UniProtKB/TrEMBL annotation:
This is GlxA family transcriptional regulator. Residues 218-316 form the HTH araC/xylS-type domain. InterPro entries: Class_I_gatase-like, DJ-1/PfpI, Homeodomain-like_sf, HTH_AraC, INH-QAR. The keyword Iron does not apply. It comes from the Bacteria. PANTHER family: ARAC-FAMILY TRANSCRIPTIONAL REGULATOR, HTH-TYPE TRANSCRIPTIONAL REGULATOR RV1931C. Keywords: Transcription, Transcription regulation.
Length: 326
């Protein structure tokens, strides 16, 4: 049986993003052309969906389809004012998400990460969303570790993606994870997109010049990034910024959206992920290079935030070398 993907479309959905899962997953096939996924779209009550544009879409299925899914994709919906203010889901959306089976994989596209956060599914996990709303996500849901630089985050069962075309990257990543590089690359060719994009969304982020550079913590953040292999304490950071620990923490949180030590742990983890993806360094050396000290601490962070061991992460994410030209 093909893997069943159910896409949830809510009022305000972005039409381009809504079409991404079906476009990508329907191109993942066996050599004989048999599709490896079936894609169904549902809405609350099976009602027509008001899109972000000037039209509505007719949807054939209601939220009961979520009960049958192997993977649920929540198509991009910008967070409502109520969600931003209260951090709570509308009752009908919460009831729909409750229909999802405990082992079902759940994916958010772009700003639908706010829905997963409000449902408590991102607590203690690394996540991303569109770079313009990463700070808002971190402030509204402080238990979520928000990474504004990446195209997507894979926590095992729960996955989040950045804005726009990053949904394509995440869907191709799932095909690659489920069926290997060859199937994913073939699907990408049929969609006429890159099978793997280097870098993240950091290149698209607007970086205004701080009004008062003397009060910014940016120089200290760069100082810490240049020394991830070294032990760094809150006092070390504050001392470098010529501030008290209390003042530094307040200003740091205002600029970054998280505490200094949480941010530092996130940067160490991000660097470890990069090394696992792009090098063959032993896990022990990566743990030292990223400031975790030993492989046990590194494994603990990977299980806590990504739900897998460093070696499992390497197997799932290391990009293979391109085939030599024949």
């Amino acid at each position: 049986m093909p893997h069943r993907v159910v896409v949830l479309a809510l009022d305000g959905v972005l039409p381009l993003d809504l079409g991404i899962p079906a476009r990508v997953f329907n191109e993942a096939c066996e050599p004989d052309g048999t599709r490896l996924y079936s894609v169904t779209t549902c809405s609350l009550g099976g009602q027509p969906v008001r899109t972000h544009e000037d039209y509505r879409l007719v949807v054939e299925h209601d939220e009961s389809a979520l009960e049958t899914a192997d993977t649920v994709v929540i198509a991009t919906q910008e967070p409502t004012e109520h969600l931003l203010k209260t951090g709570r889901l509308p009752a009908e959306v919460a009831a729909a998400l409750d229909r999802i089976r405990p082992r079902t994989r759940i994916v958010s596209l772009c700003t639908s990460a706010f829905l997963l956060a409000a449902a408590g599914l991102l607590d203690g996990r690394l996540a991303t969303t569109h770079w313009a709303l990463c700070d808002a996500l971190a402030r509204r849901f402080p238990d979520v570790e928000v990474d504004p630089d990446v195209l997507f985050v894979d926590n095992g069962r729960i996955l989040t993606s950045a804005g726009g075309a990053a949904g394509i990257d995440l869907c191709l990543h799932l095909v690659r994870r489920d069926h290997g590089t060859a199937v994913a690359s073939a699907a990408a060719r049929r969609c006429v997109v890159a099978p793997w994009r280097e870098g993240g969304q950091a290149q698209f982020i607007e970086h205004p010049v701080p009004r008062d550079t003397d009060r910014s913590t940016s120089a200290t953040r760069q100082w810490a990034l240049d020394r991830l292999a070294e032990p760094i304490t809150l006092d070390d950071l504050a001392r470098h910024a010529h501030m008290s620990a209390r003042t530094f923490t307040r200003r740091f949180r205002g600029e970054v959206g998280s505490s200094p030590l949480k941010w530092l742990a996130q940067q160490r983890l991000a660097h470890a992920r990069l090394l696992l993806e792009s090098t063959d360094l032993p896990v022990a050396r990566i743990a030292t290079a990223c400031g975790f000290g030993d492989p046990v601490a590194l494994r603990k962070h990977f299980y806590t935030y990504l739900g897998m061991s460093p070696l499992a992460y390497r197997r799932a994410h290391q990009v293979p070398e391109p085939l030599a030209a024949q």
